[in-house]
Amino acid sequence: MSILHKRRLITALIFNLLLSSCQTHLAQPKNFQSQEVRAGEEIHQQILSTSYVYTEPQVNLYVSTVGKTLAKISERKNLAYDFTILYENRIFSASAPGGKIYVTTGLIDFLENEAELAGVLAYEIGRVQYRDPYFSPSKKISNGIYKTSA
Length: 150
Hints:
Elements: H1 3-22, H2 32-50, H3 57-71, E1 82-86, E2 93-96, E3 100-104, H4 105-110, H5 114-129, H6 139-149
Parallel strand pairs: 1-3
Antiparallel strand pairs: 2-3
């Protein structure tokens, strides 16, 4: 992949992050967060049942540290963000309700520096901040993740 193509991809990711930060935060019922966390955990279990998790401790710590540093300045600091690396050659990232963030080994290999990783993680954290008004805890999110990974 050419440097120009990589730059365009990174620019698109940053642009999407900026767009997601412009969305309005939707009012949610009191118990929405607990429902959201449960839905995210269900989706997480589905993903774990169909994907291999990359277990290299140093890489996982690195991704988690970058992600949690970004999460500290997010609007929803009270979520227990969980960063999971999936062993997959395809280049993608995804998020699920309740602060579940996924990146692939293909994406990590594709990125050239920490700033690019931070851009991807910030985008996914941003997706968790501003929810779709038609949020369906299981179907919509899991369908998006499976479409991306197919």
